[in-house]
Amino acid sequence: PPSAAANLCPGAEQKVVFITARVHPGETPSSFVCQGIIDFLVSQHPIAKVLRDHLVFKIAPMLNPDGVYLGNYRCSLMGFDLNRHWANPSPWAHPTLHGVKQLIIEMYNNPKINLEFYIDIHAHSTMMNGFMYGNIFEDEERFQRQAVFPKLLCQNAEDFSYSSTSFNRDAVKAGTGRRFLGGLLNDTSYCYTLEVSFYSYVLGGPNSAVPYTEEAYMKLGRNVARTFLDYYRLNSLVERPLAPTAKTR
């Protein structure tokens, strides 16, 4: 239908969600979570159709392809931890960051585009579950608005932990995508790092750790995508299949 691509027409107002992954090559779960997001968004699922009609998703699934190819754990071919170079990326030494940053600044300067979310996907080697890092703002209202998305995600994903989600301005993290873009973009943009455990998530008590599988990582990705439906209150637009009739015993 013509309405399906209305938000992609030239000059149309766009709400953009920008997602990046695998800036640290050893954090393979990041790629599976991102794969889950992509597979869901391009599917025929009724929720995916509504999301495509209302939002524009821009996804850079691998920010460190040379590091991944070489089997590096954290650095690029030239030995850089790319996630510390967002402030001033070099087109020669950090080309992927430079390209993504230029695109984000271009969108930021376009009055027809609202860059609403930036989410950078990582994997964590010591914590359990999925969780997020956000930024700290002096503005109390902005700080509270930033907590909305992780709270909604917590309701959609059994492996996502809001209690492990934290908001910080640690100096060590100053060159990260989340911190740098959180300072660059305006107060209607939300920048997060989405972390997911390398090994397991906890359901119920402390001794009930469930090992992550590739499918479980992709499911977290699907749940991240679905959470935008709740965030933008688009639930009423989803075509519901007819409810099956209850079977009588």
TrEMBL record:
Which catalytic residues are annotated?
E195
CDD domains xref list: M14_AGBL4_like
Q: Which domain of life is it from?
A: Eukaryota
Pfam families the UniProt entry points to: Peptidase_M14
Tell me the GO BP annotations in alphabetical order: proteolysis
Q: Is Hydrolase among this UniProt entry's keywords?
A: yes
The record, for InterPro entries, names: Cytosolic_carboxypeptidase, Peptidase_M14
Recorded GO MF terms? metallocarboxypeptidase activity; zinc ion binding
Which cofactor(s) are needed, names only?
Zn(2+)
Q: Which UniProt keywords apply?
A: Carboxypeptidase, Hydrolase, Protease
Q: Where is the Peptidase M14 domain?
A: 1-232
Question: Record's family?
Answer: Belongs to the peptidase M14 family.
Descriptive protein name = CBPC6 carboxypeptidase
- Which source organism? Corythaixoides concolor
